[in-house]
Automatic annotation (TrEMBL), chains A, B:
Gene3D superfamilies in UniProt: 1.20.970.50, Nucleoside phosphorylase/phosphoribosyltransferase catalytic domain, Pyrimidine nucleoside phosphorylase-like, C-terminal domain
Reaction equations catalysed: thymidine + phosphate = 2-deoxy-alpha-D-ribose 1-phosphate + thymine
Residue ranges occupied by any Pyrimidine nucleoside phosphorylase C-terminal domain in the UniProt entry: 428-495
Protein name: Putative thymidine phosphorylase
Family recorded in the similarity comment: Belongs to the thymidine/pyrimidine-nucleoside phosphorylase family. Type 2 subfamily.
Signal peptide span: none
Keywords from the UniProt entry: Glycosyltransferase, Transferase
Keyword Membrane (UniProt): no
Record HAMAP family: Thymid_phosp_2
EC number: 2.4.2.4
Species: Variovorax humicola
Broad enzyme group: transferase
SMART domains, per database record: PYNP_C (SM00941)
């Protein structure tokens, strides 16, 4: 074996996107290189190479001549059991010198950000360095020019799609709001009008369902780029999972650190959103900003500032961006969970009498604005055009056609077990905690079990009587149902009922 | 078992000071809480609690009802195999809000820094948040007042010693220089003059030997506080390992992140050094700042700025601080490695003819300055007093007495295998790479094998002939010796020889 070489072994440990390798502390390589735990090491083999964090093992599950790799390290390295891997001190990353110059008050230019984002996207930059960068960008740490340069750099280190058609429109919603599944209605309306809308969506990260999870209960979403192109060329639109596209890969790495740091950086948020859209080949983008006490953007002033940043940076990148502020105070529609949300969407598309009106209204608002941005509808006429397309069944037909093109329309599954939670008193619904709704739906099994989740029977300001059902939990196993129920009973109520209001008319003089 | 409880298991994985727990991704707790890998989780059991990073396991070494703990998590938790541990989302740390206000331009005050350092010292603050804090402190990110407040906060969250004697003196050296083992000579000189000098030292972290490692080849160093007090009360001085004292524990956590980030923060460096000294109960502190191309402080201007910061912050904390700039261009003495350095120290104390003059001179310089600071020697008379104490044998007698008081004088071990590296040409020694010397000594086994290391036979400007020995490698096994030699041959030379100089006088007209 060559100097510093060890035999590869899959550790079966998931460290998310941070690659970790495991070596015995008493192995020759650790002794020779003087590695400490948490050291950054370079692993190479036949031209492949990887930067990883070292964790030293004293237990007996690893031999002295072995190196175990975490799942992300294993995949990034493309390793096989028994491969000879060489472990060394990593080369000094030139891009990190740019971090230091930013610290010393210099502004970051495109070349520096490009080098940095290149290393970030390849997983070469350790988390603590990412955290340092995010800290420098905090608040208004990036000015407009730097934000433009960062967005460009993030686009340029990944793939960028070109549809050969114009205009290509897109939408984005900032911060999750349970049940806000407008995309599945907006895309078929817009596409039915002949406007190109190739939509990539994400799966749930911390929520009960991502748009891709919901769509997957109705049609396949795991399409590669060639398949996605065929769908869009035939139907003008698609709703697929964006993961396979490698669009703005640096953004994914930064988000991993931004989320736990919970440092707000307007520059990073703008760069994150717009880099994905630019990489996707979008030209006109509508951005939905729900405002509420538990949403990402909580005040009209903050929404306004963010909106101006999005529009300016978009313009610099050749993207026409428009924003719309919507109500983020309670869940949208009824269902929270992949299949339950899909049923809400189908009810709207099928124009059923019991379709949730709020989901329909929001989808028409967004579709109308996109039709106006695309030039298909005259100013102020988009909403009407969208309503016609929805009401005459063209949107439903287009949605079915898109599903068929993506691999075939499916019927969303139904959960094996349901249980309703009822009002403990008469009164008026004063608030619904959107975070607890999402958490409960997850405990019931969403999005892993697509049929699981919660369906809401009330909205804020509804009057309820004692024992009226407030919401119903859906689960695939009795265990999961019990688990979600025990959580519900251990927390503040998800649906808050103001009993005083009901009394007021009785007790008032 | 209670809600979210799992059975403890020791993973035998060393993640340095970052506690990590391992759960199966398909266990009930992960599903229920919606944990992702790299999530911060709180682990509790019978009032004990711990914050740790979660790594999810898909391999079959862990069961669904088990939680495995990394070494640091295991020790911090004081866990035993099979303990029932409950895993939850961690509480929101109030202290982190202070990080955000600093980001928004507010200055940090004592109360905020105290709360933050308290959480830091208890291991509650994840690495990426530490990295964010270090980034905010970068360069001159902390002003003088903030540095004073931070230093106080770091002292106040740990133990603080009070010797009931005055003055208590101390010394510190910034940045390692191989062989610079003056402490073992300075302490007995100063203590022999009746000045109290309770010295705690560190073991090697990245170097071939720490002062504690060197002292350990001559006497026990792993004393608890009570034992240390007895030594100091009897002998006026001691040289012990500082680890058990829990002095400025937050500093250790910050250093773990500062080192890989390699962000220079003058405020953090000053707070780090002075918090340890203040916690130690020191009153007058001499700080040795070696200047060289490979040392931590590389220019007289930087040393000057740092020096002013140390003196001002020290004054605010009631510490009298003085700095001295020394030559950091080559190793001090001959030995590099615990026992080899101990032999240099003993040669100086025993006034042997072959004692390394540079080590003797440096020790006399520092001891003289400390004697002046303590008031024991008149200004400009310290060096003379130190020399008298060294030359008449009082320093040796005091050193032996200190060693006896610490548990008994020992004879440093000698290595089983030695091999000299010889000059390839005639010429003059133009440079010695201090970093490569340290690395080679470590490959030979230092400081794990106390007898291992390197001994230098030449100094910069020495003339050598071809085949003269330049340095000798010492190792306990032939394998380690071969390993260090193969490293030596794979690198640029440790000792650079300028052959042209030897020629010059011959070829000059």
């Amino acid at each position: 074996m060559s100097f510093n070489a060890l035999l590869a072994r899959r550790a079966g440990i998931d460290t998310y996107q941070q690659p970790v390798v495991y070596l015995r502390s008493d192995c020759d390589v650790c002794k020779a290189e003087g590695f400490q735990s948490q050291a950054q090491v370079e692993v190479t083999s036949d031209g492949r190479h990887l930067l990883a964090v070292l964790h030293q093992v004293s237990g007996n599950w690893l031999r002295n001549d072995e190196i175990a790799l975490s799942e992300s390290a294993w995949n990034l390295m493309g390793a096989s059991e028994g491969d000879e891997l060489v472990v060394r001190h990593p080369p000094v990353l030139d891009s990190l010198t740019h971090l230091r110059s930013k610290l010393h008050g210099e502004r970051l230019h495109y070349a520096a950000l490009r080098a940095l984002m290149d290393d970030v996207s390849r997983g070469r930059v350790p988390d603590i360095h990412l955290a340092s960068f995010v800290t420098m960008c905090a608040g208004d740490g990036l000015d407009l020019e730097e934000t433009v340069a960062l967005t460009r750099a993030m686009v340029d280190v990944g793939e960028r799609l070109d549809w050969g058609m114009s205009p290509v429109v897109d939408k984005h919603c900032i911060g999750g709001l349970p049940g806000n599944r407008t995309t599945l209605i907006v895309v078929p309306i817009v596409a039915a009008c002949g406007v190109v809308m190739p939509k990539t969506s994400s799966r749930a990260i911390t929520s009960a369902a991502g748009t891709a999870d919901v769509m997957e209960t109705l049609a396949p979403v795991d399409l590669d780029l060639a398949a996605m192109r065929r769908v869009v060329e035939r139907e003008c639109g698609c709703i697929v999972w964006g993961n396979a596209m490698r669009l703005s890969p640096a953004d994914d790495m930064l988000i991993r650190v931004e989320r736990p740091l919970s440092i707000d950086s307007e520059g990073l948020m703008v760069a994150s959103i717009l880099s994905k859209k630019a990489a996707m080949g979008s030209q006109r983008v509508l951005i939905d900003i729900p405002l509420g006490v538990l949403t990402k953007v909580r005040s009209p002033a903050a929404a306004d500032r963010l909106s101006r940043g999005l529009v300016s940076v978009g313009a610099a990148l050749g993207l026409q961006v428009q924003t719309v502020f919507t109500d983020g105070s309670q869940p949208v529609g009824r269902g929270v969970g992949p299949a339950l949300e899909a049923m809400d969407v189908m009810a709207v598309l099928e124009r059923r009498a019991d379709a949730p009106q709020d989901l329909r209204d929001r989808a028409l608002l967004l579709a109308g604005l996109i039709l106006e941005m695309s030039g298909k509808a005259a100013p102020e006429r988009g909403n009407l055009m969208a309503r016609e397309v929805l009401d005459d069944g063209r949107a439903l037909a287009k949605f079915i056609a898109i599903c068929e093109a993506q691999g075939g329309l499916r019927v969303p599954p139904r959960a094996a077990h349901v249980r309703s939670v009822r009002a403990p008193v008469d009164g008026m619904v004063s608030a619904i905690d959107t975070r607890l709704v999402a958490r409960t739906a997850k405990l019931a099994g969403a999005p892993r079990d697509p049929a699981a989740g919660a369906s809401m029977h009330v909205r804020v300001s509804d009057r309820v009587k004692r024992d009226d059902p407030l919401y119903t939990l859906h689960a695939q196993s009795l265990g999961a149902l019990q688990y979600a129920l025990s959580f519900v009973h251990s927390q503040l109520p998800i649906v808050r009922i103001d009993a005083g209001v009901g009394m007021a008319s009785v007790t008032a003089p």
